[in-house]
Amino acid sequence: MPSIRILATLAVLALAVGQWFIWAYAPVEETMGLVQKIFYIHMPLAWWALVSFFVVFAASIRHLMTRSAASDILAGAAAELGVLLSGLALVSGSIWGRAAWNVWWTWDPRLTTTLIMWFVYAGYLVLRGSSAGGGLGGERRAMVCAVLGVVAFLDVPLVFYSARIWRSVHPAVLASQGGGMEPEMWHTVLVNLAAFGLLWLTLLVLRFGLGRAEERAQALLLAGREG
User: Fold this and answer.
1) pLDDT score, position 189
2) Averaged over 154-168, what is the pLDDT?
């Protein structure tokens, strides 16, 4: 698919530009030094994970309203990306936290709600795969997953606002003071958000296409058995 190749090429180039911004353009933070540059990867991972879960939410609502197989496939593809990106955000955050707080993990509200969110959507993926093990199958599985995809999204706004609702050591980057970052740091954040966004879109389109191909293959296999 030429369009996918173009999108993938743009994503790779954007990620390369993002790395230049991280290591050559953005200044070294005075307190934490080079380890602070993890932030420019950690934040895009977290943001696009939340976007993934919003796509799960929207696609699940559409499936409940229309019984669209494409919406169910899109929800599954977005959930896989969300679990991957949020897991990487937790790992990168732990590395950053080890340097900042001298611990790999602390039960901070932002970290705790994010971990809960990860487990919820990991459970969602397990449920989606349950048909392979003789559990729910077909439209019933899709409907149950759609309901869970809607309900699970309740934790996403909680993750976003947790640092503001409760006392949290996690920095609020979008604070009224701009998070205390220099303009060059903000430029680097925006470039990497865009770069990871292109990567996210590429992976989502590829996974959605694979899901549609799997659906067609299953339909052909079922037709062959009935014939």
Assistant:
1) 94
2) 74
